């Protein structure tokens, strides 16, 4: 879609450093040299078009006791649609894709504190009639999240994020706050005041709590999320690499430093599935992705990866926590 120059800068700002103050859209307008009303109108249009998925708090699930994993099922072709619908119905599933492999359904799933993610994956396998499944939890994170540069010459880049290895137990009132701030921020002059009113809090309490959770790493960032395809990045692939254990800490950061790589993880491997390093890459077309893969092979000295292209998107949403808690 056609964007005015200041709108391209706006998209960059709200992904990188959304203003946590009573009138954030006014602050953005002043930075861009336009009126607050223009910013609000533009964001409304960009949300309606599907380019902006949402603006809100992005939590670190593990910081509040949730456990997550990547998983894949080998589902008979005739059952794929039915299986995808069953998996999508679970609130802890945020992404679900059909990919070009005998393990054809790939999804991420999170479970509440005290639950085991592999048990949930096994349940999905049993209920969908899958012939086999892969349970691929993270061993080490090298890179997570990405900023999409909508300039024609731009590419993905790293956002500011905070993470923690500490687990926090949120009180019931804090869970109410978390539920509120992980929803899409209203497009009104004082959005945090509107959120606060809905849960009988003050604007200052909402903003103060978000900043506190950011400082602790419970919230990774407060920002806008864009849809890659609507931002012009129609090429994307998951790459599964076989990397010698002793080279993971060398090659993982090397891959993570590439602008086209949005996610990079070490994951559990098995004798029958030897891939232990996973990267998500994005380009403006599949040709861009092929060029990135060649560069990654050159940089790492590794054998060519297993390239898993997305054939169909069954689900892509931001994980919302505390669905299991009483309201």
From TrEMBL:
UniProt xrefs under Pfam families: AsnC_trans_reg2 (PF17805), NirdL-like_HTH (PF22451)
Q: Where is the Siroheme decarboxylase AsnC-like ligand binding domain?
A: 64-143, 230-315
EC number(s) from the headed UniProt entry: 4.1.1.111
Listed GO molecular functions? lyase activity
Which reactions is this enzyme annotated as catalysing? siroheme + 2 H(+) = 12,18-didecarboxysiroheme + 2 CO2
Residues in the signal sequence: none
Keywords linked to the UniProt accession? Heme biosynthesis, Lyase
Q: Which residues form the Siroheme decarboxylase NirL-like HTH domain?
A: 7-53, 176-220
Q: Which family does it belong to?
A: Belongs to the Ahb/Nir family.
User: Which protein is depicted?
Assistant: siroheme decarboxylase
């Amino acid at each position: 879609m056609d964007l005015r120059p200041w709108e391209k800068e706006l998209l960059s700002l709200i992904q990188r450093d959304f203003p946590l103050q009573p009138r954030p859209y006014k602050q953005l307008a002043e930075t861009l040299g336009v009126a607050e009303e223009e910013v609000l109108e533009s964001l409304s249009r960009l949300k309606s078009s599907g380019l902006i998925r949402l603006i809100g708090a992005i939590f670190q699930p593990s910081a509040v006791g949730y456990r997550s994993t990547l998983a894949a099922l080998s589902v008979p072709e005739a059952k794929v649609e039915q299986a995808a619908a069953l998996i999508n119905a679970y609130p802890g599933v945020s992404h679900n894709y059909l990919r070009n492999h005998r393990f054809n359904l790939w999804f991420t799933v999170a479970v509440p504190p005290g639950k085991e993610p592999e048990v949930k994956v096994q349940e999905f396998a049993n209920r969908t009639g899958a012939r086999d499944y892969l349970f691929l939890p993270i061993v080490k994170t090298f890179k997570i999240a990405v900023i999409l540069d909508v300039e024609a010459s731009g590419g993905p880049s790293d956002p500011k994020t905070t993470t923690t290895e500490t687990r926090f137990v949120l009180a019931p009132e804090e869970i109410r706050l978390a539920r509120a701030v992980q929803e899409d921020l209203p497009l009104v002059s004082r959005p945090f005041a509107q959120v606060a009113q809905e849960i009988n809090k003050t604007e200052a309490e909402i903003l103060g709590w978000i900043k506190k959770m950011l400082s602790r790493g419970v919230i990774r960032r407060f920002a806008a999320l864009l849809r890659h395809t609507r931002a012009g990045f129609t090429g994307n692939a998951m790459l599964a690499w076989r990397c010698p254990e002793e080279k993971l800490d060398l090659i993982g950061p090397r891959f993570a430093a590439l602008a086209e790589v949005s996610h990079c993880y070490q994951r559990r491997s098995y004798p029958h599935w030897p891939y232990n390093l996973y990267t998500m890459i994005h380009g403006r077309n599949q040709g861009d992705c092929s060029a990135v893969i060649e560069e990654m092979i050159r940089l790492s000295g590794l054998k060519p990866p297993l390239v898993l292209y997305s054939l169909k998107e069954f689900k892509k949403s931001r994980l919302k926590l505390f669905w299991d808690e009483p309201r």
